[in-house]
Write a structure and sequence with these properties.
This protein is an alpha+beta fold. It has 5 helices and 11 strands; from the N terminus they run H-E-E-H-E-E-E-E-E-E-E-H-H-E-H-E.
Length: about 220
């Protein structure tokens, strides 16, 4: 009887472990190089929506339309047809939003994090995300003094992990807890760095768009 129970426990444990869902990995191919991101299972609606759009090829020929040095690179809105030039790109936003999935402080705006763009709190108090616009955090490095000042001004308490990340890797702590962070770059951060440095106009639009050639789901 004891052996049966042990075998049953092992079978249940094995099923539980094998049934754990692996974090999906997505390859973003740009004309400046390749970026690989993983999507968090803790933000399932954003994960599933992003995968849906990838499968529909919704991000093929989309460009990074907003770039701010020491902050982020943003894409998902403008499509650049193969035979067009940058100033003839087509703006497109999908007609639905994704409910906020803010998993904080576990996921914060560390450099390399994949996040969902959205409209401001004044028109979007629920902080729902844009269906198709996303950004990758680049950010800046912070000193202890700067982080102490931010904590005092915003009446927040950063975790030791956040403080270490913002000092060593950099990021955008002023957005923490207000936007959905749903993934992170696991390969190709040097490409993100190159995109961040392209020349922009006073409205943060690149003088020459960086194009996303295709996006695909990597096999597990």
């Amino acid at each position: 009887m004891k052996r049966v129970l042990i075998l049953l426990y092992i079978a249940l444990f094995t099923t539980s472990v094998s049934g754990q869902e692996k974090e999906p990995k997505i390859l973003i191919v740009t004309d400046m190089g390749k970026i690989t991101v993983k999507l968090y299972n803790e933000t399932p609606q954003h994960r599933d929506n992003f995968i849906k759009l990838v499968r529909e090829h919704a991000y093929d020929s989309v460009v990074f339309h907003r770039i701010i040095k020491q902050f982020m690179i943003q894409a998902g809105e403008k499509i650049l047809p193969d035979d067009s030039i940058a100033n003839k790109s087509v703006a497109r936003n999908l007609d639905y939003t994704v409910p906020a999935e803010i998993v904080y402080p576990e996921y914060f705006h560390k450099r390399g994090r994949l996040c969902a763009a959205r409209t401001g709190d004044n028109v979007n108090p629920e902080r729902a995300s844009s269906a198709n616009q996303f950004y990758i955090v680049t950010g800046k490095h912070y000193s202890d003094h700067e982080l102490d000042k931010m904590e005092k001004e915003k009446n927040i308490q950063l975790t030791p992990e956040q403080r270490e990340a913002y000092k060593v890797a950099g990021g955008a702590p002023h957005l923490d807890g207000t936007y959905t962070v749903f993934g992170e770059v696991i390969k190709g951060m040097q490409v993100v760095n190159k995109i961040e440095l392209v020349s922009t106009d006073p409205t943060d639009h690149p003088l020459k768009y960086v194009k996303i050639k295709k996006v695909k789901i990597l096999k597990k």
